[in-house]
Amino acid sequence: MVKLRAAEAGEAEALTALVLRSKAHWGYDEPFLASCAPELRIRAGEVAGRRIAVAEDPSGGRVLGLASLEGAPPVARLGLLFVEPDAIGRGVGRRLYRDALRRAAELGFRRLLIDSDPHAAGFYRAMGARHATAANRPGEGDVPAGLVRFEVAPAPLAAWARAWTGGGPAVHVGNVAEYNSQFADATLDREQRAAHHYACLAAFYSPWPGAVVLPAAVPPGWIERVGRLLEWEGVEVYDGLAEGGCGPAAGSGPSAGAGLSDVVRARPALAGRLGGTGLPLVPWGLTAGFARLAGRPWRPRELRYESKSAAHGLFGRILAAGGHPRILLPGQWPAPTRRAAARLLAARAREGASTVLKSEHGVGGSGTTVVSAERVRAAGGARAVLRGLPRGPLLVEEYVAGPAGPREPRDLTYDGFVDGAGLVHEAGGAVMDVAGAGYRGATVGPGVVPAWAQEPLLAFGGAVGRELSAAGYRGWFDVDFVADRAGRLAPTEANLRLTGPSIAFMVAARLDELRGAGHLVRIADRVELGARLPEAALDELCEVLERGCAELGAVFLPSIPTGAFDPAPWLGVLVAAYSREALDAAEALVRTEAVAVGAAFAGGQGAREPSRSSASSKSNGEGGFRVR
């Protein structure tokens, strides 16, 4: 890895020679290079003022490239970025560019202008810079002949993301099934296959993982691919640790009946390795096992508002205190028996009202069913409807009719967290993709939440966070809402854990820091494949999607790769872009290509068990491989 440092005045002549060698690499003739030389010359007295940084080989001290950051806030210019010809393609330019962007953010620059040689335009596009298509602003000057102007909005890591893990890497523990099992949710399958797949989201529990701990084995190249796109370095992966399950319903095997956290504790070398990093440990959600692993007190009452009825009561108390006129609370009635639920449902059906039936706990809409009066009549009565639902007590809730405008979002969410000192940090609002009562994904980013919903959503979400803090909760949370026809928001539940939208916020924070502010990020839980894929085919599909999205000005990240090997195969993905149009086009491309590859492997061609080669088979049994 190259070493970056400030250039020295005495290097001016050598740096000028490097610039001219780099420029000549593109095949320009001597007369053209001679005409460029005065403009490209670096004078000793200008080195500090132009903020020139150099990249040097740490082994021999040879300078391999340089970049300058010029101007005064709010607008900076990347005046120079040149790499020795024999070092092009080795990541030197990328390091210099990212360093310039970081320095620009630290110095308070709002915009960074780049007048690029046409041969370097592809590099800047790959770095996330955008063509400066608008008319030049006063004082910015015309684009020099033969060059291409790009611009980027430098941004430091978001304040909430710095507070989440201290601005650095963390150890991510994918204890999704362990978290779910403590609530005995009857709507989840006993093996919690989906939970083991969703544990892959552990890669994104913060903007930058130092280590990822997973219950199931993942494809060996997956973290390398994601890490390259998000520029992670030195990520350790420990996978395949609890293939038999993570909870009371687990099958046989050494980890049967144990949560992932306890499986890690049972391996002293691994537990010592993770605990000895000095990095914070971040789980999907708090559990007794994780408390033991992290050495923190376990207070089960911290999670009491994960209960939908308890959250409803909390919402009511906040609204009773006033100050939230754009928030309404739907009625909710507990039904401890199916007979009681049938009576309530039948009474509402006779009034022509639709009803939401909920279990106390559920994940991603599991255990939540919307029942119209027409459905009750068609089924032959309320009891017939209830016979098709999972067992257990139900909550009967008033259905809130959606917004009048077809383009207005109905399902929104607020994300934030309570830090160790009890302070509430706001990540922001998101729009969710919900079909029926089932969550399918979410979009975060500037302008995603409509203006009419922004203020009430953030104000009420913050109020919930303060109540959670007062109740002793420490960790990530969200509040889900539905919008009604009058432009009001109805809170429907709180989740005291990480979620799909939280993952999108993490990725948006990382991309904004790396590529410039303004990213929209969409997480799609399930992109159906239609056929099981061998690992090689999955890797090829991801390569196609990565290139195709890049051509659209978007970033593609496979977030849940193991679903591709499921009997009903699917893929979890993230896409990011600066515009809604590019984001929609990227998602459409992903879904189209997924259908095409599924068709190619239909009929049994892709049905074999994939090779689960992984470093988790190391002889020490601890698992793990490192991204270089």
Note down, in words, how this protein is organized:
The structure is a single chain. The chain is α+β, with helices and mostly antiparallel strands. It folds into four domains: 3-152, Aminopeptidase; 159-285 and 498-617, no CATH class; 303-327 and 403-495, ATP-grasp fold, B domain (D-amino Acid Aminotransferase, Chain A, domain 1, 2-Layer Sandwich); 332-398, Dna Ligase, domain 1. The protein has an eight-stranded antiparallel sheet, with helices on both faces. Helix 1 runs antiparallel to helix 2 (30-40) and helix 13 crosses helix 14 (373-379).
Shape: elongated
Question: Average pLDDT across residues?
Answer: 90
Name the poorly predicted regions.
Answer: 245-257, 605-628
Number of contiguous helices? 19
Report the span from N to C terminus: 10 Å
- Secondary structure: number of strands: 25
Q: What is the percentage of strand-forming residues?
A: 15-25%
Which strand order do you get reading across the main beta sheet? 21-20-17-18-19-22-24-23
State the major sheet. 8 strands, antiparallel
Which structural class best describes the helix and strand composition? alpha+beta
Number of domain modules: 4
Helical proportion, percent range: 25-40%
Radius of gyration: 27 Å
Oligomerization: single chain
Keywords:
single chain, 628 residues, alpha+beta, D-amino Acid Aminotransferase, Chain A, domain 1, 4 domains, five-stranded mixed β-sheet, 25 strands
